[in-house]
Design goal:
The protein has 17 helices and no strands. It is mostly helical. It has one domain (7-420): MFS general substrate transporter like domains (Growth Hormone, Chain: A, Up-down Bundle).
Length: 425
């Protein structure tokens, strides 16, 4: 890994995770769920606001499910991965900044703006992931992938720490109260995301344009849509890819649902917002070294074994969360999530890179992101629906365990090619 520390394209690529993880921490997992419940949807019943929070996450994910494969193939056909990444990055930045001016009680508007920000975040990640085989290969994949997630935890956690301090001590920052601090926090996320994205666009080389790349976007869109149909048919020729995507769909559903609904769940069972924010902050800083360690583990024992170990930890987390009733327990679970979250994500990405043809990474990562976003349609919707039907938030979090069990079982049974770790790794 020593080389990658001085490799500008690797550092530039990884810094995009540092940049956009501010959205994942401060907005997606941290302030938006709490602010939505207590500020924008304050006139709704707690279970109803949970339902609508699940709906907006699911709708944004559905949009990416429909669009991701075509967007990925379009990037491959046009040879403009960085340009598409820039467009989605800008969408996310502008929408996140707009949350600052969304007025109290306007929960439908808040949902709409959050939808656009989430699409910008998810769409950008599609193209960011597709650049991985352009900046690393061979035995560097696990560590470079983990470096991205590690810097994401560190960068997102650093800004989140500042944002939490703004909320807890607003007068120190020249702000009137915690509400104004949260609103300004959305603007700081947008600025952070924009500024730290610059190294990727400056240092990562453009994707070489192949002879078959189309000159116009319309022609590339048509060709890209056609390639999606062919990929759906051809993916059956890659059984390890097909079954990995099914397993990934299930277990990453559980991972993302825990991230997106943890704060809402904590509020629903009576925990205080400051405790939830501090616990999420702990997750970020534990996640930084843990993601790097998982990269080493994946390199030595194989990415599949590392992912399965993380899934086992998540099962314990969900079962414990079902009976949790104190802030201290929430802190313990936050540490546990931090230990495995980035590792599971990083090793999943590096394992997938080993399974696919490098020249079609945009197209295949379109499907990879499609499965991830399709999963996030199901998870938050299940949590929200169970909460509304049973009026018991604890039962809703327990349902997530089924996703980890099913995904882990399929992943363990897949016959992997030798280059991806063979039968047992």
């Amino acid at each position: 890994m020593a080389r990658s520390r001085f490799d500008r394209k690797v550092v530039g690529w990884a810094l995009y995770d540092w940049a956009n993880s501010a959205f994942a921490t401060t907005v997606l997992a941290g302030f938006f769920p709490i602010f939505f419940k207590e500020y924008w949807a304050r006139d709704l019943a707690p279970t109803d606001s949970t339902f609508w929070l699940g709906v907006v996450n699911s709708v944004a994910s559905l949009f990416m499910v429909i669009g991701a494969p075509v967007l990925g193939a379009l990037a491959d056909q046009s040879g403009r991965i960085k340009r598409f990444l820039a467009a989605f990055c800008l969408l996310g930045v502008l929408a996140t900044a707009s949350l600052m001016w969304t007025p109290a009680g306007a929960w439908p508007l808040a949902m709409g703006v959050f939808f656009l920000a989430t699409v910008g975040f998810a769409g950008g990640n599609l193209y960011y992931d597709a650049l991985l085989p352009r900046v690393a290969a061979g035995d560097r994949l696990e560590r470079v992938s983990a470096l991205g997630f590690g810097l994401g935890y560190l960068g997102g956690g650093l800004l989140f720490a500042i944002n939490v301090a703004m909320v807890r001590w607003p007068t120190f920052f020249g702000l009137a109260d915690g509400v104004e601090a949260v609103r300004w926090s959305f603007l700081t996320v947008a600025a952070w995301w924009l500024v730290f994205s610059v190294p990727l666009f400056a240092w990562v080389p453009r994707t070489p344009r192949q002879p078959h790349h189309q000159a116009s976007y319309l022609a590339a869109l048509r060709a890209g849509a056609g390639r999606v149909g062919r990929t759906i048919r051809e993916i059956r020729q890659y059984p390890s890819v097909m079954w990995f995507l099914v397993a990934y769909w299930l277990y990453i559903d559980g991972v993302d649902t825990v991230v997106r609904m943890a704060a809402d769940y904590g509020l629903a069972i009576g925990l205080e917002a400051p405790d939830l924010m501090t616990a999420l902050l702990v997750t970020q800083f534990v996640g930084f070294p843990a993601a790097l360690v998982f990269g080493i583990i994946g390199q030595r024992v194989g990415p599949r074994r590392g992912i399965l170990a993380g899934i086992m930890v998540y099962l314990v987390i969900v079962l414990w969360a079902y009976r949790m009733d104190s802030a201290a327990e929430f802190y313990v679970l936050a540490v546990a999530v931090g230990l495995v979250q980035g590792g599971v994500q990083a090793l999943s990405r590096s394992l997938f890179v080993r399974l696919i043809p490098a020249e079609r990474s945009g197209e295949f990562f379109g499907f990879y992101n499609m499965m991830g976003k399709f999963a996030v349609i199901l998870g938050p919707l299940i949590v929200g629906a169970v909460a509304v039907i049973t009026r018991d938030s604890r039962l809703s979090i327990l349902a997530v365990a089924v996703l980890f069990l099913a995904g882990g079982a399929i992943l363990a049974a897949i016959r992997l090619p030798e280059s991806a770790g063979g039968r047992v790794k």
